[in-house]
Amino acid sequence: MAEAVGTAIGTRVGQDSLANSVRDAIIAGLIAFLLFVVILGLKTENAQEKLILIPRIGYAVTIAVVVAVGRLLLDVFVWRARASRAAAKPLLTTRSILWLLAISWAIGAYFFIVPGAREALATSASDLFGADEWRTRTRIAVDLFGYAFMGVFIVATAMVLMLVLRRTLAGIGIGTRDETQGVLSELSTQLAPALLAIALVLPFLVVGPQQRYAIDTAIQVLTYIMLGWGLNVVVGLAGLLDLGYVAFYAVGAYSFALISTTFGWSFWVCLPLAGMFAAAWGIMLGFPVLRLRGDYLAIVTLAFGEIIRIVLLNWYSLTNGPNGISRIPRVSFFGLSFDRNAEPSFYSVFGLEYDNIYRIVFMYYVILFLALLVNFVTNRLRRLPIGRAWEALREDEIACRSLGINTVITKLSAFAIGAMFGGFAGSFFATRQGFISPESFTFHESALVLAIVVLGGLGSQLGIVIAAVALIGSSEFFRDLEEYRMLIFGGSMVAIMIWKPRGLVSSRTPSVALKERKVISAELVKEGHG
Amino acid sequence: MSAETAPILQVDHLTMRFGGLIAINDLSFSARRKQITAIIGPNGAGKTTVFNCITGFYKPTEGMITLTHPGGEEYLLERLEDYEIASTAHIARTFQNIRLFSGMTVLENLLVAQHRVLNQASFFSLAGILGLGRYRKAEAEAIDFASYWLERMNLIDRADDAAGDLPYGAQRRLEIARAMCTKPVLLCLDEPAAGLNPRESAELNDTLRWVRDEHGLSILLIEHDMGVVMGISDHIVVLDYGSKISDGAPEFVRNDPAVIAAYLGVAEEAVEEVEAEVQL
Question: Is residue A370 a part of any domain in this protein?
Fold first, then answer.
């Protein structure tokens, strides 16, 4: 009886609020239209020395529709879900997720599978608005919506899997939240080996015309993973905010380029030398900033990054200025060149047809090896006194000094090791490109690497991998969208900062344990301030 | 003077000025070996400043601070860097507002305290990166040593928890354990009983007495809790407005009129007397 009443009330409330939601969405759309009709709906243009007004009502209509639909979706799937969760009646149940899944998949599939659907829509849009430019606009909009639906599809699938997992776990008796989380963290420890396995066979997963592009992208991602791991030593472990990390990348690249073009030494000789040069510059930067903390440190390191770039740009006799250094020797297969005309070459020794893909696959394994080396060394260092001193420095510098830790040496070693890893990555960059110029080492790179470290979660090696794949990979993936991909980039960053303010993997794994290794939650781990 | 009561720490004419403010004014006292010396005084008397001068966080404006090790080596503390005072002169300290490495586990906190020994064992991390056995052995020893102090401080069950997760009293105990892991000859405790309940501060008294008797440690203590101070101190130095107003055994200090005046104020007549003197 009581249940029936409850259902009746639930239905009525449901209908009411659905009607309310629609009305609310329409009002929001109208307001948006009124706001934007002046701002975007009218355009002034100089034509024959007089100002003419071009009406662009389409823009305002589009925005109004987006606002209305967005508000309706938010209302139905977020606000009402929240309200009903408060009333212990979840709206975002398995069924609603499945519906969402089906709808998003259907719409996504319609545009992706049905050939010409996009074009048809584009044509009808250009007919409707009477301007040819609407054709391109509609294409972009459809693509954006397509990707959005794809995102929803992926997230919804993941959510269903999670639900099924939870149910299953609850079914076999480990249903409490803590234990479920324990199992989940268990799963996440399996993630690293799984990713490594994928990385090892990746060049053979993609075949056909896309292979070269896929491996190139993977090399790009791995370079940034390596840079992220290097910066993680400085920012994540030692808690020293470095905005000029690209300086060490540049020093590594230029050291490698100059040494290898001047002396003609091989990659494996130049690589450690370039790393050492970068480390030396890390120490040189470290000295003046030892006393600085927080924002001041960030500003000075930022300036240092710019100084390096400007010196590279102007020291013409050494660096060839803005023209850069070209003809940097390519990586060789243990002395065997990948060049077409070299003798003996990789191809003649192994009896293969000339194909550039061999070189690219080899480069992929070189950067994979370097990245894994960096990861191995960092993980070892974390368990060593110096690594613990870095983390202690991040937690409390004064307490460190009271325990007899020389904070000067500790900070400098963090800068040096982080810079050395950056130098390795720079060397690889130089040999991969065969040409470097100061243009490759702008502040944008520093910001990108820092974003990877911050989004991944300060101090987390695995988080950095996920963040690098997401940021670099997605910006490659969305390449067709041109400038709109910065929108996606920014949006995803905002989203992560809202849901995971301390990064994707924010918890800390202790370096040593007496009985069992318990994960430390992010609230307790400090971010460092100097 | 027997070795038992020879001074371990000698402070001579210590003065600390911050601009125009004289935080410590010509302070001289000594702390004796295997004794608990308490520094007390009203708020703002300069107690923590004295600590900061001894442990190197401040460079004194004037004066000399001498630490004498049991072996007879002398260290002039005002000339050492703060980290050298901990690593070379072997003075350990705790802080008034607890300073733990809150995101690291209890065990890790104690291993950071043994940084110097471990760092040498790992050849400044080079041997450690290669995974040589020498470092592994040193680390096992360091963990054993840490376990000893964890057991003693009743923290062994929480060794793998984050230090920031511990309740307040346990954090105080952990800070002392961490200081002890540096193997100090002089332990400086800045208000160790602050925020503890009566049972916890009684336990603290026992622990400090045990450390003094069992490990022959000399302790310098700042404390407001008179129960702790009078209960365990062998010697008390009283500061007021940066100057020493009394110095001696607890019984003597307790009855010293200057101390009573500083803590409780003076009688009405005394004020009038002074006012008459300065012709107010």
Answer: yes
A118 with A164, same domain: the answer is: yes
Q: Report, as an integer, the average pLDDT of B37-62.
A: 91
Cβ under 8 Å to B: A residues 498-527: 508, 510-518, 520-521, 523-526
The model's pLDDT over A26-41, given as tens digits with 9 standing for 90+, comes to 898 998 888 888 777 7
Cross-chain Cβ contact B104/A380 below 8 Å: no
**Confidence (pTM):** 0.77
Query: Looking at beta carbons, which residues of chain B come within 8 Å of A400?
Result: 83, 112
Cis peptide before A322, with omega less than 30 degrees from 0? no
Dump strand ranges (E) for chain B: 7-18, 21-32, 36-40, 62-68, 74-76, 91-93, 186-190, 218-222, 235-240, 243-248
Q: Per the domain annotation, does B230 fall within a domain?
A: yes
How many other CB atoms are there within 10 angstroms of residue A303's CB atom?
A: 14
Domain carrying residue B83: 1-90+184-280
Mutation target vs A (from B112, B122, B171, B220; most A CBs, 10 A cutoff): B112
Q: Which of A71, A89, A107 is the last residue of a domain?
A: A89
Residue to test with chain A: of B54, B75, B88, B125, most A Cβ within 10 A:
B125
pLDDT digits (tens, 9 = 90+) for A16-72: 567 778 888 889 899 888 888 877 777 777 777 777 777 777 778 888 888 888 888
Query: Residue B272 domain-assigned?
Result: yes
B61 and B114 housed in the same domain: no
Same domain for B176 and B189, yes or no, is: no
Pair (B146, B198) in one structural domain: no
Q: Are A265 and A254 in contact (CB under 8 A)?
A: no
